[in-house]
Amino acid sequence: MSELTIEKAQEALSTVNDPDLQKDLITLNMARNIEVLNKKTVKFNLVLTTPACPLKSKIEEDCRQALYKIGAENVEIVTTAEVRGFRGMSGKQPVDGVKNIIAVSSGKGGVGKSTVSVNLAISLSKQGAKVGILDADITGPNIPLMLGLSQQPSLSEDGKKLIPLEAHGVKAISMGLLLKDSEPVVWRGPMLHSAINQFLRDVMWGELDYLVVDLPPGTSDAQLSLCQAVPISGALVVSTPQDVALLDSKKGLSMFKQMKVSILGIIENMSYFIAPDTGKEYDIFGSGGAKKAAEELGIECLGQVPLQIELREGGDKGIPVTISEPENVVSKAFLEISKNVAAQVSIQTVKQEPVNV
């Protein structure tokens, strides 16, 4: 076999595709600093598009096999991640330092959207991403309670920006941190629009890979304000398996499509109940509704979260289940969901000119 060279190693790696992005590693600039050591060993940096990459092991193995075919006896892969930023094609001004904005919505209330937002953000953070969560439910903020936050955020040295609080590895801002618990927010649309814009622009988010925006249920001012203000990497919808919840979810998805926001997929919450004494599963709210709806709409079903007391208790105590019980079946479900969400965000970023690479 002919001598092993950097050029041949690069050519071999150009045959390896990222299965989600449907392009080869060389084109995507994911295989870097290729070296040939002692004429037998190939060493390079594999730079994934997210630390939550669900196909990391497969990509690494595909690289090894491609290099073995050209005569490499040893392959040394240094795997890191570099989240790429989404800026869209609309000319909207991104939030300084924030690479991707993920909108989390629901067609109706009571489906666990805020619970999903919090545990999704934590799951992304636990895999190495820099994550923030913006509570855009101005009149009914729940994020502070779920993250165990109660103190007010402070101001920057110049007094112009709020410094977000941090809990469980996630930065957070919410109207609930600025008001007393019993103080209502009785605002009209323009005031809600102004508040959301201030939470986007007048908060010192720093460098974030993902900003998860927890929207109020339905299709109203908050959704429109967010879509008009910033480029959104994608939106996901939380639903239960019930027909009525899925019907409302479809309306929410249609709204985002009208606003030219890409749909990342649907998450089914309260999918089934696992009896703690027998382990038997019960489909309290029906079965498979989100998967069926996703197939009908041509979008991804990003995962299913079982109904569990620990999930509710974690939100009430301010210590989410993904923190308190990482081996819990719910925590594992959120881990897989976070990987699927990150993969869908990466797909959106490669559809444009990549930034922050």
Structure description:
The protein is of the alpha/beta class and about 350 residues long. It contains 11 helices and 14 strands. It folds into 2 domains: about 5-80, 2-Layer Sandwich (GMP Synthetase, Chain A, domain 3); about 100-350, P-loop containing nucleotide triphosphate hydrolases (Rossmann fold). Helix content is about 35%, strand content about 20%. The strands form 3 sheets. Strands 6, 7, 8, 9, 10, 11, 12, 13 and 14 form a 9-stranded mixed β-sheet that branches. Strands 3-4-5 form a 3-stranded mixed β-sheet, covered by helices on one side. Helix 5 packs across helix 6 (about 220-230). The protein is globular, with a radius of gyration of 22 Å. The mean pLDDT is about 90.
Question: Care to give the gist of this entry?
Answer:
Helix content is about 35%, strand content about 20%. With about 350 residues, the protein is of the alpha/beta class. It has two domains: about 5-80, GMP Synthetase, Chain A, domain 3; about 100-350, P-loop containing nucleotide triphosphate hydrolases (Rossmann fold, 3-Layer(aba) Sandwich).
Helix content: 25-40%
CATH architecture grouping of the largest domain: 3-Layer(aba) Sandwich
Total number of helical segments?
11
Oligomeric state of shown chains? single chain
Question: Terminal Cα separation, in Å?
Answer: 36 Å
In the CATH scheme, what's the topology name of the largest domain?
Answer: Rossmann fold
Computed structural class: alpha/beta
* Overall outline: globular
Q: Could you give me the name of the CATH homologous superfamily of the largest domain?
A: P-loop containing nucleotide triphosphate hydrolases
Largest β sheet strand count, sense and barrel closure: 9 strands, mixed
Mean pLDDT: 88
Order of helices and strands: HEEEEHEEHEHEEHEHEHEEHEHHH
Strand content: 15-25%
Q: How many runs of DSSP E, i.e. beta strands? A: 14
How many distinct domains? 2
